[in-house]
């Protein structure tokens, strides 16, 4: 009998990094390619013939990494944000830190369950657009994968699935340079720029150092008086900005220090409404003691 696996049968979970423990929180996922990527080393010298020999093949180094896509609820974000930004929650506030904590992940592909360890968030991308939910794509990069014989079964953590609703784009409020702005879409990228080449004399990565963090915010908006005054051309030092989603009693707010960009081009592409695309990079504002990014997330189910 042929066994086939469909995506709806799969499960995804995360937990605090541990040498042997499994994931402790399950997430509804919308696609996952987190996996082990192997390499093979073959001696390929000159032997007086055209055909290479495969007899000397050995497994080389391997990496662990990939992306998972979520539609995070407020309580999901309370768990995830310290791993994205680095610092633990402080009264609904999540700050940046120079070091990132590690995770363990379990991926149930129905016919087997794989466990990956020593994971860090290489990049987190928050996306929302008209008519849709807030989406979070996590690029996770790690150190090792459990052996297939030790893959086991998916942990019994279904009770940790969030019962809350995801945030929706039209629940968002956007402020740039002190003005309320209406936007059609938003893409916020937090790139921790992990260094992924540190193997030394190990088959797996031994350390995954954090690199210079890059935070960007891209969106487009109608060309009008507000866009002309606050978005098209800004001072080189930059402007302030934030986006906040309010879903009933819960909120998610991302506040940037200084947002900088060169002048936004204004292409005319037809008879319809002109919608310039703005591409900001976020920086720390030393003069005003404002960090590059700070996130607040309320979850009223918390005790």
Give unreliable regions as ranges.
none
Q: In total, how many domains does the architecture comprise?
A: 1
Helix vs. strand class? mainly beta
Largest β-sheet summary: 18 strands, antiparallel
Structure summary, number of beta strands: 18
- What best-fitting shape do the alpha-carbon axes yield? globular
Q: What is the mean predicted local confidence, pLDDT? A: 94
Helix content: under 10%
Task: Give the C-alpha Rg.
Answer: 23 Å
Distance between the termini: 50 Å
SSE order: EEEEEHEEEEEEEEEHEEEE
Structural features, described:
- The protein is mainly beta.
- The chain has one domain.
- Helices cover 7% and strands 40% of the residues.
- The chain has two helices and 18 strands.
- The chain has an 18-stranded antiparallel β-sheet that branches.
TL;DR of this structure?
The protein has 303 residues and is mostly beta strands. 7% of the residues lie in helices and 40% in strands. The chain starts with 10 loop residues before the first strand and ends in a 6-residue tail after the last strand.
Q: What attributes does this structure have?
A:
mainly beta; Phage_tube_2; globular; 18-stranded antiparallel sheet; 303 residues
